[in-house]
Structures are given as structure tokens and as C-alpha cells.
Amino acid sequence: MIESDLKERIRRGDQIVGVSAPMTSTKAQLETTFGADDYDFISVDTQHSPFNEERLVEFCGNAAEVGIPVHLRIKHTRQSYLIGNLLDLGPALIEVPQTETLETAREAVDYFYYAQFGKRSWGGAARYGVEGRNDRLEYAEWWNNTGVLWLQMESLHAITRAAQLALPGVDCLSWGPADLSFNREANPDHPLQTDDDCIEYTLKVLKGTDTKLLIRSYDPNLRNKYRDMGVTMLLERPKA
Question: Exposed (0-12), middle (13-18) or buried (19+): which is 108, by Cβ within 10 Å?
Fold first, then answer.
């Protein structure tokens, strides 16, 4: 079963939790990981992990059979022009790491969405939800209302520009705790001194927009902490 209302639920501010998994996971392993809690999507990473396109197609195919939308973090910021190509392999959610500029955000939107909102090229037999939606305009409209685009901010420079990065079509912003910590350590006099400061700032500037904040909390025990702060999206490690 294809989960087609995830984008709507994100924008509505529902509580969303994803779980990470290696791209080598079998269908049975995906069922075990996804069944351990009430997860909304499963996440694979190519930024810091080995990757080939055939394996991604297989992984997304297995996930589709289980009914799991797949999130993919791409290899590099400067590869945002490849988003459409990667989406043709089966992911439902795409994340661009280390986003710093409005130009990157615009390029991501362009290659994520079909016309007339974006300029993603048409094609790909392994696309998420394409089965039974062979009409070009039907699938394009469905995708534009279903796929989830997010940008990862990993510097204070990016976080203080969160309002500008939250373009129409950008469903969520996120950051990684390690790289952001490096950047905070390099800027000890910056007003945003802690991770919690960054969260509070970002939530404030995103208020009233369709763009939500995702936190890589990793630990399920931290759910209540972040939810109490107003965070609606979390990404966690699998439960042991």
C-alpha cells in the first residue's frame, strides 16, 4: 500500500517519526525494523554510505511491497540537480545535505517537482507510486502532492536563513548534530549557543509556513523533549 498522505500530514503538523536502515536490508529486515514502532517512513543515507543505483531500486521495491515510503539523503549538496534522476529509482522523500544557499534550495525544488511547478523530467519505471498511474499528467499531479522534499542545514549561516530556505515546495528543514556542533564551536560568540537555541530559533521563523523542522534525535527516549519544544518530525535509529 502506498502512503500518499505523508506530505499532507507533515504540513498539517502531525507527529511524524522516521527510522533509519542500511540499504542492504532485506524485505524481512525492513518488516522487522518498520514494525518495531509506529514509524512513518524509512531512511537510507548515501552521503556517508556506499551507494549504487541498482541497490536503491531493489531497496525501494522491497519497501514498497511492505508499504514503507523511503527517504534518501543524497551524496552532496552540489548534486541537487540529480534529484529527479534519483527519484526515478523509487524514493518518496529526498534530502539535500549541507544546504547553505537559496540557489541550492531553488534547484532542489526545480528538480523535485514536475511542471508546472518544477522542471523534473518525465520517466522511470521504478518511481514511487507510478504503478497504476501511467497517465503523465495524473502521475505528475499525484507526485507533486505526495513527494516530500527537505533540506539539511548544518551551519549557523544556514539556520539563520531558514526562513529564506523554506521556499514553497520545501516540506521540511533538518540538521545533523555533528556538523552543526563543529560550526557552533567555530563561532563561540554567536547568539545561538546550543542545539536547543537553534531549534527554538528555527521553529519561530517557520511558524505560519508549510515547512516543518525535523530533528535527528536518534533516541526514542528523546521524543517527548523535542515534541514539548514544538518539533513535529523526528528521525531515529532502529530499536534494539
Answer: buried
CA angle 48, 36, 2 (to 5 degrees): 75
What amino acid is encoded at 134 in this protein?
N
> What's the structural domain count of the chain?
1
On whether residue 223 sits in a domain, the answer given is yes
pLDDT in tens, 76-86: 999 999 999 99
Q: Residue type at 87?
A: L
In a domain, 1, yes or no: no
Closest Cα to residue 71, out of 97, 56, 92, 54? 92
Domain that holds residue 218: 6-236
Name the grid cell of 38: 509506529
- Mark out the alpha helices in 35-135 (DSSP H runs): 53-66, 83-87, 102-112
Q: What is the pLDDT of residues 14-68, one digit of tens each?
A: 999 999 999 999 999 999 999 999 999 999 999 988 889 999 999 999 999 999 9
Which residues make Cβ contacts (< 8 Å) with residue 188, sequence separation at least 6?
none
Angle between helices 53-66 and 27-34 (to 10 degrees): 50
Q: Which three cell numbers stand for residue 82?
A: 540529480
Residues in the chain, pLDDT under 50 = 1
Q: Would 102 be classed as within a structural domain?
A: yes
Q: What single DSSP character describes residue 168?
A: T
Q: Please provide the size of the chain in residues.
A: 240
Tell me the CATH number at 58: 3.20.20.60
Residue 49 lies in a domain: yes
